[in-house]
């Protein structure tokens, strides 16, 4: 099983990096599952100006888009790390998604958010978008609210995840559920392909 942890923000000093360290550190306990960080900083895509990928699946406009599309394609499921910007999710994430389409089909997605309401508004929007990508957006999410967000900001070492310990039971629920769906849908996709 191959799960991607998608870091949806790229700005200098981003909080998402702390969440990425936490999620990937937690994931090490899952034997036989490969967790891969997909950092949108490593995928500098132009603003979308192409043909709708819905009509031209996997026909990539340039090498950078192809690299991103092929990256997304190889996963069985996703954990999206979702910041909330002005009650929505980040533009850089939407831009990246709009360059692709079929790569996400029939795969589950879960969310970890943070902010004044734990990223809840951004995550709800992303669930709606996921439906259009023919994904399975899952119920379990982790919401890092100010009780953990603010102390985490005070931590000088962004790789020290101890402050997130109270949220770990929720991350476990999310991960266990995501793996169930990722396995079930991979079996179904493999059957369809045969
Ligand atoms: C442009 C902008 C808009 C923001 N709007 C919200 C918001 O609507 N709700 C919220 O909870 N936090 C908001 N914040 C605070 C972010 O949740 C906080 O900066 C968080 O760390 C963003 O994730 P990042 O550091 O990975 O970029 C906003 C931050 C920025 C930069």
UniProtKB/TrEMBL annotation:
<dbReference type="InterPro" id="IPR005025">
    <property type="entry name" value="FMN_Rdtase-like_dom"/>
</dbReference>
<feature type="domain" description="NADPH-dependent FMN reductase-like">
    <location>
        <begin position="1"/>
        <end position="144"/>
    </location>
</feature>
<dbReference type="InterPro" id="IPR050712">
    <property type="entry name" value="NAD(P)H-dep_reductase"/>
</dbReference>
<dbReference type="GO" id="GO:0010181">
    <property type="term" value="F:FMN binding"/>
</dbReference>
<protein>
    <submittedName>
        <fullName>FMN reductase</fullName>
    </submittedName>
</protein>
<dbReference type="Pfam" id="PF03358">
    <property type="entry name" value="FMN_red"/>
</dbReference>
<dbReference type="InterPro" id="IPR029039">
    <property type="entry name" value="Flavoprotein-like_sf"/>
</dbReference>
<dbReference type="GO" id="GO:0005829">
    <property type="term" value="C:cytosol"/>
</dbReference>
<dbReference type="GO" id="GO:0016491">
    <property type="term" value="F:oxidoreductase activity"/>
</dbReference>
